From TrEMBL:
The lineage of its organism: Bacteria, Pseudomonadati, Bacteroidota, Chitinophagia, Chitinophagales. SMART domains: HTH_ARAC. Residues 187-286 form the HTH araC/xylS-type domain. SUPFAM superfamilies: Homeodomain-like, RmlC-like cupins. This is Helix-turn-helix transcriptional regulator. Keywords: DNA-binding, Transcription, Transcription regulation. Pfam families: HTH_18. The keyword S-adenosyl-L-methionine does not apply.
Length: 293
């Protein structure tokens, strides 16, 4: 397991790092870095964990991740199959407003943009109606250099700051602080749960992964994630169920329930409604009505 803190290589002649990934799957470990990250997922699907919150992600979505915000884009399990021909394609922009750009952001003319950056430390998901406009701006930045690139970057920030309905990834503006050792431990636990969610997982199983007694594990997990082990596992499972339901590639709701680790359709329906506020069928109907509109 990689350490939680991640260092982005910064060229001496660049203050904005542009990276395009074409890979079999996303980097599979929970991590964080000093840079703010703007990610356009051109191709790929799975689960985004940001702080202690989970979001299903799909192709052609854009996410903003705050500085030092723990996160992982976990590709859907089929990407890891030995004969999988799937791949992810993503553009990622990194910038540190407190690094080389600090003097720039302290200019009085950029006060509103600096406020925008500071107000979104918990990250956000871009509403789908703005993805085309923002991704075009991102491509202009990727295709330019020098002063032109910096000007296009400012235009991108101005555009993002003009949107009123940005969807936060986390309810809290406080970024959880982990030591390196705690980060490794939490990352291992997250990774284990997200790989094994479709199978029976007990508290004892998870505690063994952290090399802790069940009692110590419960205290540690709640302190660092604000979740109980069961509530986190249920959110992982329901998040995956939502993705399967809205993909439409399933025989019936019961099939989704069992393939997401639930051994009872009654329990699945109860947990699903407790987390989403809707029954599975209501969720599906609501999702496709919004897509059509």
């Amino acid at each position: 397991m990689k350490v939680l803190q991640f260092t982005i290589p910064v060229p001496l002649d660049k203050s904005i790092i542009v990276q395009k990934d074409v890979l079999p799957f996303f980097y599979p470990h929970l991590h964080r870095h000093q840079e703010i990250q703007l990610t356009w997922i051109q191709k790929g699907d799975g689960t985004l964990v940001a702080d202690n919150n989970m979001h299903a992600f799909r192709s052609n979505e854009i996410y903003w991740l705050g500085a030092n915000q723990p996160h992982i884009f976990k590709s859907e399990p089929s990407y890891f199959m030995p004969k999988s021909k799937k791949k992810i394609v993503a553009w990622m922009f990194f910038f540190n407003p407190n690094g080389q750009l600090s003097a720039f952001f302290n200019l009085p003319e950029l006060k509103l943009l600096k406020n925008f950056v500071q107000q979104h430390q918990s990250g956000f998901k871009l509403p789908p109606q703005h993805v085309t406009e923002v991704s075009n701006k991102m491509l202009r930045i990727a295709q330019s250099a020098g002063a032109d690139q910096l000007m296009h970057f400012v235009e991108l920030l101005k555009l993002l700051s003009s949107y009123q309905e940005l969807l936060p990834l986390s309810a809290s503006n406080k970024t959880p602080m982990f030591s390196e050792y705690e980060g490794i431990r939490i990352g291992n636990i997250y990774n284990y749960i997200m790989q094994q969610y479709d199978r029976p997982i007990t508290l004892e199983d998870a505690a063994k992964q952290a090399h802790m007694t069940p009692q110590a594990f419960c205290r540690f997990f709640k302190k660092h994630t604000l979740h109980t082990f069961v509530s986190f596992l249920n959110e992982v499972r329901i998040n995956e169920a939502c993705r399967k339901l809205t993909d439409g590639a399933y025989d019936n709701i019961a099939t989704v329930a069992y393939t997401c680790g639930f051994n009872s359709i009654t329990n699945f329906n109860r947990v699903f409604k407790g987390i989403t506020g809707q029954s599975p069928s209501e969720y599906v109907n609501s999702y496709f009505q919004n897509v059509e509109h």
